[in-house]
Write a structure and sequence with these properties.
Layout: E1 29-30, H1 31-41, E2 46-49, H2 56-62, E3 68-71, H3 75-89, E4 93-97, H4 101-104, H5 107-115, E5 120-126, H6 142-146, E6 152-155, H7 162-174, E7 180-186, H8 187-191, E8 193-194, H9 215-227, E9 231-235, H10 237-241, H11 245-255, E10 259-261, E11 278-281, H12 288-296, E12 299-303, H13 309-312, E13 323-328, E14 342-345, H14 348-355, H15 365-377, H16 391-402, E15 407-410, H17 414-422, E16 431-432, H18 443-453, E17 459-464, H19 465-471, H20 475-481, E18 486-491, H21 496-505, H22 520-527, E19 530-534, H23 540-549, E20 554-559
Parallel strand pairs: 2-3, 2-4, 4-5, 5-7, 6-7, 9-10, 9-12, 10-11, 12-13, 13-14, 15-16, 15-17, 17-18, 18-20, 19-20
Antiparallel strand pairs: 1-8
Amino acid sequence: MAAKPQTSAPARPSPTDSSPPPPVTPVKKSGAALLQDVLIEQGVEVVFGYPGGAILPTFDALYGTPLKFILTRHEQGAGHMADGYSRATGKVGTTIVTSGPGATNLTTALGTAYMDSIPMVAITGQVATAAIGNDAFQEADVVGVTRPVTKHNVLVKDVKDLPRVLREAYYIARTGRPGPVLVDLPKDVQVQQAELGSATEMNLPGYRPRIKGNPRQIRLAADAINAAERPVLYVGGGVISADASAELRTLARKGNIPVTTTLLGMGALDEVGDADLALHMLGMHGSAYANYAVQASDLLIAVGARFDDRVTGNLQTFAPHARIIHIDVDPSSISKNVDVDVPVVGDAKAVLIEMLPHIEHRDRTAWFQQINGWKKQYPFTFNQREGTILPQYVIEQISRITEGQAIITTGVGQHQMWAAQFYRWRHPRQMITSGGLGTMGYGFPAAVGAAMGRPDKTVIDIDGDGSFLMTCNELATVAQYNIPVKVVILNNHFQGMVRQWQELFYQRRYMATTMTNPSFARVAEAFGCTGIDVKDPKEVPDAIRRMLSQPGPVVVDFHVAAEENVYPMVAVGKSLHEMEMGGMA
């Protein structure tokens, strides 16, 4: 019998062997490659932007990247797309553009995001560090220019700082009161070599956002709610940002409290499922019943709202009988515009979770009887005219046909207010619009970003002719990538809201508000999209269904009544209860 072959065990180091392990050579990468690594580490899925000389090393590193890059047709569009992506998903939007005009073109989008507390990171190319301050080609003081419209911005001068600065940018953008952060990146820093470093490396000693509210203040707020006879929940975009809609709905139902929302707070309450609690939007063009309820309330519970002037009307007469609770993550917002009785600084979700066990149910029969009387007397309505398409009717049909399930973006103007009034909002992150800055041209690129973030949802941009013309060049973008955004243009050949003010306050002197428009359907077709033209009100429902059935991008041009006005309307300087009702009353 043959002997088995002998096998030797692997050599083991002697316990007395003190020789060090072989050195590990640190892996160094270019700044541009490190940037890509951090973006992936931070969970970035899609980037919107536009290349140029000062950012070319970064774009070269992005060649073949797993990141999805969307080439826009203007840097402002890239910023609004990142913003819309963020609002639709709750994630941090990302944009990369070049130096000089590339960065300055981004400032409107940064200002829009800053005013509405939207988390996004903008990475801008910059001339080489040695050339900074020498008026080099396409140089601009981007940090100086964008300081007023960003939550934080920084110029990176050493590649070793880049990974840390980028991680800090994403952390700052999404925590506390969210907002845009800009990282300005010189061309030489993009090509210098450094190590990636720890994924947790940050250096923010003075930045400590407060999440949990003070337990005593939370209990005081709960006691005030339980004692109130005529409470109103006044809900802003902070509830959406904090993903606190479920807690807000539980509070409203458990406490039996009517809810009014700001433009950015829409969808925090299901206006169909909780119709008995829904007061809809308040303020300048809010519902009459919301405004009357606020003015008659004995307790106003502001959650994630900032008492904007378009909401409050005349501050001296705002909610004159009410004690005020203000829940907000930003301590600087507390008592900034309106003195409050019970301040609670903290994240809306965390605060509401702590508050809910202390809330008692109250019937408040007399209060709801009064509110229901206002609802019956002053509903959102319009007077349909034979042969004329009314913009309110178009939006009402979109809401009905989509069953309130679409994501809606808007530009700014009359169409924005009609969308807020006549679409029935059911879900958070469903209404995407420019609130604080009031940015015309926002709706279309924001819809592109929303569609990239939520490919499972129908995304419709309800736009005005004036707003759409400001960024319609992004039709080339949706055609190139076949992004199935649906655009509804309420085309009245006017800058509608400005014209309404000229009619009411300037004796119909329509200076610089009349628009000579192209055929938007033919423009869409020229870009490679589907275009539909609608002039007959009988064709409106079928046109909407046709739009929704098309697989790619579609533009529908609805020719609507030229001088239709938005009502109710609280004129500047008036109190919320001093509304112009137009034909609604």
